[in-house]
Amino acid sequence: MPRRWWKKARKSNHDIFVRGEVGVIANYGFKDGGGEFYVSINTDMCAECADKPCVAACPESVFAVIEDDYEDEVIEMVKEHRKKIKYTCAPCLPTDGRRNAMPCVAACGKGAIKHSW
Ligand code: SF4
Ligand code: SF4
């Protein structure tokens, strides 16, 4: 069954949920003078992902499993990291541009997690 529009179109200035062609995308993060620092999660993919390996893979415990408005289990970013995710993720960011080596991205075989910077 196709999932409907996310009811919380905009929860706050830091959390933006949009319906795109590829599914519901939850963006967590912030922007400042240095740029935009958002982690995007395709929660439609999470709803189909039974084991949710990204949760255990993240050394900073950035992700948590929640039940969304459609009673699907999806991933969200825990509140404490949303306004500092640029710094939380800094130790994981590869210097050679190989984003697939980041623990969360490597654990997610579906390509549901993307970083904006
Ligand atoms: S591993 Fe990927 S698809 Fe599975 S819950 Fe995590 S982000 Fe979603
Ligand atoms: S880049 Fe590292 S700290 Fe950031 S969400 Fe992924 S695994 Fe967690």
TrEMBL record:
InterPro entries assigned to the protein according to its UniProt record, in alphabetical order: 4Fe4S_Fe-S-bd
The 4Fe-4S ferredoxin-type domain, residue ranges: 37-68
Protein name (database record): Ferredoxin
Origin species: Pelotomaculum isophthalicicum JI
